[in-house]
Amino acid sequence: MNLEAYLFFPSNAEEAMTFYRDIFGGDLSITRRGDVDPTAPEDEKHLVINAALDSGTFTLRASDRSDATNDVQTRIELTIIGTDEGDLRRIFDALSDGGTVKAPLEKMFWGDIFGGLIDRFGIGWQVNISAS
């Protein structure tokens, strides 16, 4: 069994997933409505119905959805945990490009380096660089 994050975007899923692929690497596959639905209206054929970014260590999924917005999401944040400080700082900086840093990467009382941000698509991220 796997648990995967599935994000929804207001007609910019491909842009967001390309942004994430540029940061995390991996293979990005995109299925648009027009690829699988011959009855799709012309103005909806470009919409992403499923995108999957397989980084090798995790899979991030997304699609366009009419009720999605770029408003900041407040009920859930994606968390990246690891020990490679250089790579995790690079990821934090890349995700925050065009976004808002809520908490800069700093050493915390529990011993790890931790920071939080909202990316330019309104998705919340936490980065935790483990001390051990």
Q: What report would you give on this structure?
A:
The protein starts with a strand and ends with a strand. It is of the alpha/beta class. The chain has 3 helices and 8 strands. The model has no long low-confidence stretch (mean pLDDT 96). The chain is 21% helix and 37% strand.
Strand content: 35-45%
| Number of separate helices | 3
State the distance separating the first and last CA atoms.
Answer: 27 Å
Uncertain segments are none
How helix-rich are the residues, as a percent range? 10-25%
* Radius of gyration computed on alpha carbons: 16 Å
The computed structural class is alpha/beta
Largest sheet: 4 strands, mixed
What value does the average pLDDT take?
A: 96
In N-to-C order, the SSE pattern is EHEHEEEHEEE
* Strand line-up of the largest beta sheet: 1-4-3-2
| Envelope shape | elongated
Number of strands: 8
Task: Name the descriptors.
3 helices; single chain; four-stranded mixed beta sheet; 132 residues; 8 strands; alpha/beta
Entry summary:
The chain has 132 residues and is of the alpha/beta class. Helix content is 21%, strand content 37%.
Structural topology:
Layout: E1 5-9, H1 13-24, E2 27-32, H2 33-36, E3 48-54, E4 59-64, E5 78-82, H3 85-96, E6 100-107, E7 113-118, E8 124-129
